[in-house]
Amino acid sequence: MTLTSITGDSPSRHPSWFTPKKLLILFCAINLINYVDRGAIASNGVNGSIRTCDDKGICSSGTGIQGDFNLNNFQDGILSSAFMVGLLLASPIFASLAKSHNPFRLIGVGLSVWTFAAAGCGSSFDFWSIAIFRMLVGVGEASFISLAAPFIDDNAPAAQKTAWLATFYMCIPTGVALGYIYGGLVGNYFNWRYAFWGEALLMLPFAVLGFAMKPLQLKGFGPDESKKALTSIESVNEEDGNKDTRSQSSVKASKLKSSPPFLRQLSQFSKDMKVLLVDKVYVINVLGYISYNFVIGAYSYWGPKAGYNIYHMSNADMVFGGVTIVCGILGTLAGGLILDRMDATISNAFKLLSGATFLGAIFCFSAFCLKSLYGFIFLFSVGELLVFATQAPVNYVCLHCVKPGMRPLSMAISTVSIHIFGDVPSSPLVGVLQDHINNWRATALILTAVLFIAAGIWFIGIFLNSVDMYNDDGGENQICENANDSMEPLLEENQAEMAGILNEA
Fold it and tell me: Are 446 and 433 in contact (CB under 8 A)?
């Protein structure tokens, strides 16, 4: 009996119009808007400046969010990290729900929440209202962050997986940089609120598409029919197995089946978390990523303001935006292409991570030591070019050091960790440091030194025993994947391959 006959699906269906390249373009556009939002709220045009008074008692009104809500640097730093709270809480939830709900539909739900929250940010009336809407932005983003990379990894050509991931993650620096420029222009010519309303309008079509388009499936995750097929096959296999073993398995299965769905998901989540936490490769990769993101998160938020105060840049948003766009695109793409050329392995990824971060740290640190604006721009540009080369390799390790069914959780926990220990505390801490020492150059140098720690942690990963788990589904997911092969091909470029599998079956 074949799995096709069990599920009752016919292989003779027309393939979807949706191709891997179209999927990549769609996800890149969504990712770009996500990070435009982060750049916009950090821009001088949207973030603004606090109300100040001189020695004579003459006060100037503040501008942007800081001016309207009268925020100090610590509150402003918290506001930049508020969306992370929703992201941290919701990412593991969406990753767990992916095992019982279609991942593509979950992305649609998340983008709908994001659209609502972005519009709410533009309509906020005080610090707490905008802080709550920033948290909801994080909830909306959580589903996309956890599930987009596994979809891309599944459908990218085998020899270009890291390059495709690089293209996707290239949208991070590009989006932040465009956000600086976008926020500066909208905030200066209109009002900071219009920046958030514009983001909501841009994201709305993608939220609708998440529900209107035919859902896709992930490797290692079968649809409901596959679960039925798995149950049927397990029943047949149990009859041929050892009687005692069968009885024990039946008792365990019966208890698990009788427990509430929430408890079943919680139990599975607990087991999966134990697998991640004892994986040395995964832990070292995430620890390095935390240190790296501690710096990058603070750079992205405080960079324009630091540049304005150190080098008296009247157009700090434009300068930092332009440098980040060019270096982000070139650096991220270069990192992916270089790893593919090196032969994409976990060990080679660690070599690239440690080497690029160490050299990037040297250039960025040297840049802040210079008094010349042009010297700073040159050295900082080279440093950013090297630092951004890590984006594809670090996520490649997250995706390939675990089994396919664990990838959404791997990405979710990685995202949670780098934010809760990285850029969530870094922005307010840098604000506190600056309030204390009142010297932006010294603050920037202290922050940049943390990149050397990231390089050292990733250097340890080179010597770990690492195995690529991408094709290791294990007994738990193997049948689900085979059952999923009997379903209608979801991407037309996979049609021929799936047709061959079906014929053999």
Answer: yes
